[in-house]
Write a structure and sequence with these properties.
- With 208 residues, the protein is of the alpha+beta class.
- Helix content is 28%, strand content 33%.
- The protein folds into two domains: 125 residues, Nuclear Transport Factor 2, Chain: A; 67 residues, no CATH class.
- The protein has five helices and eight strands; from the N terminus they run H-H-E-E-H-E-E-E-E-H-E-E-H.
- Strands 2-1-6-5-4-3 form a six-stranded mixed beta sheet. A two-stranded antiparallel sheet has the order 7-8.
- The protein is globular, with a radius of gyration of 18 Å.
- The two termini are 26 Å apart.
- The C terminus is likely disordered.
- It comes from Kribbella italica.
- This is SnoaL-like domain-containing protein.
Protein backbone atom coordinates (compact mmCIF):
# COMPACT_ATOMS: atom_id res chain seq x y z
CA UNK A 1 0.00 0.00 0.00
CA UNK A 2 1.35 3.46 -0.88
CA UNK A 3 2.29 5.74 2.00
CA UNK A 4 -0.51 8.23 1.31
CA UNK A 5 -3.07 5.42 1.09
CA UNK A 6 -1.99 4.12 4.48
CA UNK A 7 -2.12 7.61 5.95
CA UNK A 8 -5.64 8.22 4.66
CA UNK A 9 -6.82 4.88 6.03
CA UNK A 10 -5.28 5.67 9.41
CA UNK A 11 -6.77 9.16 9.39
CA UNK A 12 -10.33 8.04 8.59
CA UNK A 13 -10.12 5.18 11.09
CA UNK A 14 -9.08 7.62 13.81
CA UNK A 15 -11.87 9.97 12.79
CA UNK A 16 -14.49 7.22 13.00
CA UNK A 17 -13.13 6.24 16.42
CA UNK A 18 -13.45 9.79 17.75
CA UNK A 19 -17.04 9.98 16.53
CA UNK A 20 -17.84 6.62 18.11
CA UNK A 21 -16.31 7.74 21.42
CA UNK A 22 -18.00 11.18 21.29
CA UNK A 23 -14.52 12.62 21.79
CA UNK A 24 -14.81 16.18 20.51
CA UNK A 25 -11.28 17.23 21.39
CA UNK A 26 -9.71 14.28 19.62
CA UNK A 27 -11.88 14.91 16.55
CA UNK A 28 -10.95 18.61 16.50
CA UNK A 29 -7.26 17.68 16.44
CA UNK A 30 -7.88 16.03 13.07
CA UNK A 31 -8.76 19.43 11.62
CA UNK A 32 -6.50 22.27 10.52
CA UNK A 33 -7.40 25.80 11.57
CA UNK A 34 -9.18 27.52 10.08
CA UNK A 35 -11.49 24.79 8.83
CA UNK A 36 -14.42 25.28 6.45
CA UNK A 37 -17.79 23.52 6.29
CA UNK A 38 -19.80 23.86 3.08
CA UNK A 39 -23.12 22.50 1.86
CA UNK A 40 -26.05 23.64 -0.28
CA UNK A 41 -27.42 25.85 2.49
CA UNK A 42 -24.47 26.86 4.61
CA UNK A 43 -20.86 27.99 4.43
CA UNK A 44 -18.86 28.70 7.54
CA UNK A 45 -15.30 28.95 8.77
CA UNK A 46 -14.19 27.70 12.18
CA UNK A 47 -11.09 29.59 13.17
CA UNK A 48 -10.24 27.75 16.39
CA UNK A 49 -10.33 24.23 17.75
CA UNK A 50 -12.40 25.46 20.70
CA UNK A 51 -15.16 26.40 18.25
CA UNK A 52 -14.93 22.94 16.71
CA UNK A 53 -15.07 21.25 20.11
CA UNK A 54 -18.09 23.33 21.13
CA UNK A 55 -19.97 22.49 17.97
CA UNK A 56 -19.25 18.78 18.23
CA UNK A 57 -20.18 18.56 21.90
CA UNK A 58 -23.53 20.22 21.30
CA UNK A 59 -24.46 17.51 18.82
CA UNK A 60 -23.71 14.54 21.09
CA UNK A 61 -26.82 14.46 23.34
CA UNK A 62 -29.14 14.18 20.36
CA UNK A 63 -26.98 11.51 18.74
CA UNK A 64 -27.21 9.46 21.91
CA UNK A 65 -30.96 9.98 22.00
CA UNK A 66 -31.21 8.70 18.44
CA UNK A 67 -29.29 5.56 19.42
CA UNK A 68 -25.94 6.14 17.75
CA UNK A 69 -23.42 3.65 19.15
CA UNK A 70 -20.65 3.39 16.54
CA UNK A 71 -19.44 4.96 13.31
CA UNK A 72 -17.73 3.33 10.33
CA UNK A 73 -16.78 4.55 6.89
CA UNK A 74 -16.16 3.63 3.27
CA UNK A 75 -13.52 5.47 1.24
CA UNK A 76 -15.26 5.98 -2.10
CA UNK A 77 -12.66 7.98 -3.96
CA UNK A 78 -9.39 9.87 -3.52
CA UNK A 79 -7.50 12.28 -5.73
CA UNK A 80 -4.02 13.65 -5.15
CA UNK A 81 -4.20 17.39 -5.85
CA UNK A 82 -0.60 18.23 -4.95
CA UNK A 83 2.30 16.82 -3.01
CA UNK A 84 0.60 17.62 0.30
CA UNK A 85 -3.10 17.93 -0.57
CA UNK A 86 -5.56 15.09 -1.21
CA UNK A 87 -9.31 15.18 -1.81
CA UNK A 88 -11.33 12.19 -0.58
CA UNK A 89 -14.98 11.20 -0.81
CA UNK A 90 -16.22 9.33 2.24
CA UNK A 91 -19.43 7.55 3.12
CA UNK A 92 -19.96 7.60 6.87
CA UNK A 93 -21.96 4.70 8.34
CA UNK A 94 -23.88 5.11 11.60
CA UNK A 95 -24.84 2.06 13.69
CA UNK A 96 -26.87 1.33 16.81
CA UNK A 97 -25.74 -0.83 19.72
CA UNK A 98 -26.89 -4.01 17.94
CA UNK A 99 -24.84 -3.24 14.85
CA UNK A 100 -27.83 -2.22 12.75
CA UNK A 101 -27.18 0.63 10.34
CA UNK A 102 -29.19 3.68 11.32
CA UNK A 103 -28.26 5.89 8.39
CA UNK A 104 -25.31 7.06 6.33
CA UNK A 105 -24.02 10.31 4.86
CA UNK A 106 -21.56 11.35 2.17
CA UNK A 107 -18.93 14.06 2.33
CA UNK A 108 -15.87 15.30 0.47
CA UNK A 109 -12.78 16.36 2.42
CA UNK A 110 -9.70 18.26 1.39
CA UNK A 111 -6.86 16.88 3.50
CA UNK A 112 -3.45 18.46 3.84
CA UNK A 113 -0.26 16.83 5.06
CA UNK A 114 1.54 18.99 7.63
CA UNK A 115 3.73 18.80 10.70
CA UNK A 116 0.86 17.16 12.61
CA UNK A 117 0.08 14.64 9.87
CA UNK A 118 -3.06 14.67 7.74
CA UNK A 119 -5.69 17.21 8.73
CA UNK A 120 -8.97 18.26 7.14
CA UNK A 121 -9.12 21.82 5.81
CA UNK A 122 -12.50 21.71 4.02
CA UNK A 123 -15.57 19.48 4.30
CA UNK A 124 -18.29 19.55 1.63
CA UNK A 125 -21.40 17.75 2.83
CA UNK A 126 -23.80 16.52 0.18
CA UNK A 127 -26.79 14.75 1.76
CA UNK A 128 -26.72 15.13 5.55
CA UNK A 129 -29.99 17.00 5.97
CA UNK A 130 -31.96 14.64 3.74
CA UNK A 131 -30.57 11.58 5.52
CA UNK A 132 -31.43 13.02 8.93
CA UNK A 133 -34.98 13.85 7.94
CA UNK A 134 -35.46 10.26 6.79
CA UNK A 135 -33.84 8.82 9.91
CA UNK A 136 -35.90 9.49 13.04
CA UNK A 137 -38.14 12.54 12.53
CA UNK A 138 -40.31 11.47 15.47
CA UNK A 139 -37.41 12.18 17.81
CA UNK A 140 -37.96 15.89 17.25
CA UNK A 141 -40.91 17.17 19.25
CA UNK A 142 -43.05 20.26 18.96
CA UNK A 143 -42.23 23.35 21.00
CA UNK A 144 -44.58 23.75 23.98
CA UNK A 145 -45.47 27.15 25.39
CA UNK A 146 -47.77 28.26 28.18
CA UNK A 147 -51.31 29.25 27.15
CA UNK A 148 -50.60 32.86 28.11
CA UNK A 149 -47.57 33.02 25.81
CA UNK A 150 -48.28 34.55 22.45
CA UNK A 151 -46.57 33.13 19.38
CA UNK A 152 -45.00 36.02 17.49
CA UNK A 153 -43.34 33.90 14.83
CA UNK A 154 -45.63 35.19 12.09
CA UNK A 155 -44.70 38.75 13.02
CA UNK A 156 -40.96 38.16 13.33
CA UNK A 157 -38.74 40.48 11.42
CA UNK A 158 -35.42 39.65 9.81
CA UNK A 159 -34.43 37.07 7.21
CA UNK A 160 -36.43 33.85 6.80
CA UNK A 161 -35.29 30.70 8.53
CA UNK A 162 -32.78 28.44 6.77
CA UNK A 163 -34.32 25.75 4.62
CA UNK A 164 -34.44 22.22 5.98
CA UNK A 165 -35.00 20.70 9.40
CA UNK A 166 -36.26 23.40 11.75
CA UNK A 167 -38.59 22.05 14.41
CA UNK A 168 -38.73 23.33 17.95
CA UNK A 169 -38.23 21.14 21.00
CA UNK A 170 -39.59 21.72 24.49
CA UNK A 171 -36.60 23.80 25.58
CA UNK A 172 -34.45 23.73 22.49
CA UNK A 173 -34.61 24.42 18.78
CA UNK A 174 -32.79 22.24 16.30
CA UNK A 175 -31.18 24.68 13.92
CA UNK A 176 -28.95 22.60 11.73
CA UNK A 177 -27.52 19.25 10.80
CA UNK A 178 -24.04 18.99 9.48
CA UNK A 179 -22.94 15.54 8.73
CA UNK A 180 -22.41 14.10 12.10
CA UNK A 181 -23.94 16.93 13.89
CA UNK A 182 -27.05 18.57 14.92
CA UNK A 183 -26.93 21.78 16.85
CA UNK A 184 -29.33 23.21 19.40
CA UNK A 185 -30.12 26.54 20.98
CA UNK A 186 -32.61 27.77 23.60
CA UNK A 187 -36.20 27.45 22.43
CA UNK A 188 -37.34 30.77 20.93
CA UNK A 189 -40.83 31.46 19.61
CA UNK A 190 -39.49 34.31 17.51
CA UNK A 191 -37.86 32.93 14.36
CA UNK A 192 -35.84 36.13 14.06
CA UNK A 193 -34.23 35.38 17.42
CA UNK A 194 -33.41 31.83 16.36
CA UNK A 195 -31.99 33.05 13.07
CA UNK A 196 -29.70 35.54 14.82
CA UNK A 197 -28.47 32.84 17.20
CA UNK A 198 -27.90 30.52 14.26
CA UNK A 199 -25.93 33.16 12.38
CA UNK A 200 -23.81 34.07 15.40
CA UNK A 201 -22.79 30.50 16.09
CA UNK A 202 -21.36 28.89 12.94
CA UNK A 203 -19.52 26.40 15.13
CA UNK A 204 -22.86 24.99 16.19
CA UNK A 205 -23.36 23.79 12.65
CA UNK A 206 -20.08 21.89 12.68
CA UNK A 207 -19.98 18.17 12.98
CA UNK A 208 -17.03 16.37 11.45
Amino acid sequence: MDTIDAQITEYLTRYAETLTAFDARAAAQLWATPGMILDDRYAGVLDSREAMVEGLEQSYPLYRKLGLASVGYELLNQEQLSGAITMVRVRWLFYDADGNQLTDSNAHYILRQGDDGLQACVCVQTDDLEKLQAWRPSAVSTCRTRPDQRDHSAEASGPPRPRGLYRLGRRQAIVGWAGSSLSTTTCARDRGRIWSTYRRSPGMYFVR
